Amino acid sequence: MSPNNIFITEDGSHSMLSKEHGVSYHSKHGAIQETQHVFINAAFHHKLPATSLSILDIGFGTGLNAYMTFLETKKMQIVVNYTAIEAYPISLDAARALNYSTLLKQNSPDDFLKLHELDWEKKHPISDFFIFTKNKKRLESLDFNNQFDLIYFDAFAPNSQPELWQENILRKMFEALKVGGVLTTYCAKGVVKRTFKKVGFAIEAIPGPPGKREMTRAIKI
């Protein structure tokens, strides 16, 4: 995916249009503030206090969720094992063009770029607090069992990527979490919440990021 697909959202941060799905990776209201609200605040901070967390990211996309989580681990000194899934990676040229490290006031973009440059299907200790693995695979081909404290469910919307919102996939997400584990998503559609409940989740409707009244937090009970 080329840098030509990049555009600026309302908080000044970049997002991109997905060539495969024809929609943007983030809200037009702000990529950074969306990630901060939906995944860092509603998921990561929700599980604190903790000395370690295991996180599954569906999917890696621009790398913003992973990068902002990495920065949180440095600040909070929490060990995170982070697994990201992405079937359609963006190009390194596109990753180099993104402005996240500049806006997040990091002196060097190297840590952000490293997330994109590292080999797939391998575990990488990025720091004392962040162990990173990314899988270039379709979610449907993977199985996890009681492995994760958190899932960042950052699939494209149900009308753009309906296959990832089916009961079999959301059941897979339920099975991937430890008991008490948390999944967050910007999506608050009634049919999606009903499917979450059907596979066993308890659902919390919580305030959404700018431009969205509500989002969903699902808890494995």
Whole-number total of structural domains = 1
Give the CATH topology.
Rossmann fold
Fraction of helical residues:
25-40%
Could you state the order of secondary-structure elements as H and E?
EEHEHEHHHEEEHEHEE
Oligomer: single chain
The Cα radius of gyration reads: 16 Å
Please identify, by name, the CATH architecture: 3-Layer(aba) Sandwich
Stretches where pLDDT is under 50 for at least 5 consecutive residues are none
DSSP helical segment count: 7
Q: Structural class given helices, strands, pairing?
A: alpha/beta
What name goes with the CATH superfamily? Vaccinia Virus protein VP39
**Largest sheet data:** 8 strands, mixed
Biggest sheet: strands side by side, in what order?
5-6-4-3-7-8-10-9
